[in-house]
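> forwarded from #structure-qc
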C-alpha cells in the first residue's frame, strides 16, 4: 500500500492537467479539420473534390453516434439491420445539410472561443463572421466533440444558440415514431432524401 501511495498521488496531481488538455486538443483538432475543409471548398467544384469532401466529413462527423443520440431510447429497440439502414440514410441527410452550410460560410472568418469539458464530450464554441459584409451579424456555431482513440469526432452541433442538430432530430423522430412507427419514419426519411430536403 505504501508503494502505491506515491503513484496514486502523482495520478491525482496529473488528472487536472489531463482534463485541461482535453478541451485544447479538441479545439485544435476542430480548427485544423475545418480549415482543411474550407481550403477544399475554395477549389473549383469537381467529382474528385466532392469525393474528397465526403471523405473529410466522414473523418469529422460520427454518424453512428449522431444516429444513436437522435433516436435516444428508440435506438435499443431496433435490430442491427434497421440501425444500419437508419445510419446510412441519416448520414446522407446530415452530410448534405452540412455541405450546404459550409458552402454558405466559405467566405466567413471563424474565431474559436470557449472550450469546456462536458463529461465524455468537449464543447467547442466558435463565431463565424462574413468577411465581405462586416455589418452582418456573427453566427455562433457550437460543436460537441468526443475523443475516438487518437482523434476526435463531432457528435452534435448547435447554430445561434438554437436547438442542437441532435435535439432537433430527436424531437422529430420521436414524434413520428409515436404516430407512424418505424416504417413511417423510414419512409419519411427516404422521401426527404429523394426530394433533396434536409429539414
Amino acid at each position: 500500500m505504501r508503494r502505491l501511495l506515491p503513484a496514486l498521488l502523482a495520478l491525482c496531481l496529473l488528472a487536472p492537467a489531463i482534463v485541461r488538455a482535453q478541451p485544447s486538443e479538441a479545439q485544435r483538432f476542430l480548427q485544423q479539420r475545418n480549415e482543411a475543409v474550407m481550403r477544399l471548398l475554395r477549389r473549383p467544384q469537381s467529382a474528385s473534390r466532392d469525393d474528397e469532401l465526403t471523405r473529410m466529413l466522414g473523418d469529422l462527423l460520427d454518424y453512428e453516434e449522431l444516429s444513436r443520440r437522435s433516436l435516444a431510447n428508440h435506438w435499443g429497440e431496433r435490430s442491427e439491420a434497421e440501425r444500419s439502414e437508419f445510419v446510412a440514410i441519416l448520414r446522407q441527410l446530415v452530410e448534405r445539410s452540412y455541405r450546404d452550410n459550409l458552402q454558405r460560410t466559405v467566405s466567413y472568418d471563424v474565431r474559436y472561443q470557449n472550450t469546456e469539458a462536458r463529461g465524455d464530450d468537449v464543447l467547442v464554441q466558435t463565431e463565424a463572421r462574413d468577411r465581405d459584409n462586416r455589418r452582418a451579424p456573427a453566427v455562433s456555431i457550437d460543436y460537441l466533440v468526443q475523443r475516438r482513440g487518437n482523434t476526435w469526432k463531432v457528435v452534435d452541433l448547435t447554430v445561434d444558440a438554437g436547438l442542437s442538430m441532435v435535439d432537433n432530430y430527436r424531437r422529430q423522430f420521436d414524434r413520428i415514431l409515436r404516430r407512424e412507427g418505424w416504417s413511417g419514419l423510414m419512409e419519411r426519411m427516404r422521401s426527404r432524401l429523394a426530394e433533396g430536403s434536409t429539414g
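QC bot note: Strands lie at 108-118, 121-130, 139-148, 151-159. Confidence is low (pLDDT under 50) at residues 4-21.
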